[in-house]
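To whoever is on call:

I kicked off a structure prediction for a single chain this morning and the downstream step that reads the tokens threw a length-mismatch warning. I double-checked the sequence; it's 97 residues and nothing unusual in it as far as I can see. Pasting both halves so you can look.
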Amino acid sequence: MPVLHIVWIRFGDGVPEERIERHLGACRGFVGRIPGVLDVTGGASFTARAGGFTHGLVVTLADRDALPRYLDHPEHRSLLEVLRPDVAELHAMDLEV
């Protein structure tokens, strides 16, 4: 059964939009590079309904077993290190669908 890894992000004040897009593009690049990642989609919120979160990502994974492999994958861990200084707040949720 597929899993959705849903991430809500509030980028820090002053982080340029082009830098944010580089982060999101790097996440989209996980498809075909990290086993079990089937799709990555995301972008900026266009409403004020997200409680101050500015961007979101949805990572579609093959199954529950793919989640820890994705989270522990060196490319994912490397991106987190680059992303962390630009993020003011981040929440994640995982759903089986």
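Update from on-call: the warning came from a stale cache, not from the record. Cleared it. Sanity check on the structure: The mean pLDDT is 97.
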